[in-house]
Amino acid sequence: MEVKMYNEPIFLEPVFQERIWGGQKLKTQFNYDIPFEQTGEAWVISAHPNGPSVIKNGPLAGKTLLDAWNDHGELFHKREDDDNAYPLLVKILDAADDLSVQVHPDDQFAREVEKVPYGKTECWYVLSAEEGAELILGHHAETQEELDEMINNGKWDQLLRRVPVKAGDFVYVPSGTVHAIGRGIVILEIQQSSDITYRVYDYERTDAAGNKRELHLERAKQVTMIPHQDIALDQTEHNKEGLEIKKLVEETYFSVYHWNLYGEASVTKDWDFLQVSVIAGEAKITVDGNDFEIEKGSHFIIPATVEEFKIFGNAELVVSHS
Ligand code: ZN
User: Which residue in the list 199, 205, 213, 219 is annotated as catalytic?
Assistant: First the structure.
């Protein structure tokens, strides 16, 4: 199929994942038709084989984003050296309970040890947080010996660094960072397209059959950054017609921005392809004279074949590119 002239946004259907810590907020806050009592994750822009999003419109309707990546690289300005894996994954997570404390490897460790293309650096935009909600980000060990000793002896209160959060906060989590999302928090996560997680601590929880989830302590100890370091983010803002753009992060694996739309703006391509998640309000996006309605909960890609578009309305968007 010839899709070189593809001139519309690629709208995507979320893929839901059941999790023991999941809840109902993907329905109550986003009106998604969720399939599980404990729905933890919506993979909203995914070409990951464990849950690729289905395309809703246009010449590739019914295909997955993974099919599009594999068969129509021109939509993503895919290069020969792209290792044949779509680079990013966008999710919404509803933490009705605490997530396990975990750490992810970097690309080198992922390739050498796990034989997968990517490690996992991730970032979180906090969509909502209940009063008193906290994350775990980093740890207090100064040396490998200290880290090993605190993990081996279960000194979690001493080891783990807790950070309070509220809606609108942004958290950058490079590979090697010990982290956990705490109960009462809903986040939009943009991450490298990887599923490799080393679980450090799971609060001694058991499933319905009485089984604990597996821990991966040896690998976790190997990949953890010691001592923990926070990365200073240069978060500048600028205005462009009816659009207020705040840069949240521009790092090796992804760039992420918060767009506050309060009118009209013309946007010209400055990326290979753009991932867009509407987190509040509604708007209209116009590509090549055709209008597309978007609203809170819409997720789409502006493909590499679209050079410019107009956007009009009152909405908040989180946009990202590799
Ligand atoms: Zn993680």
Answer: 199
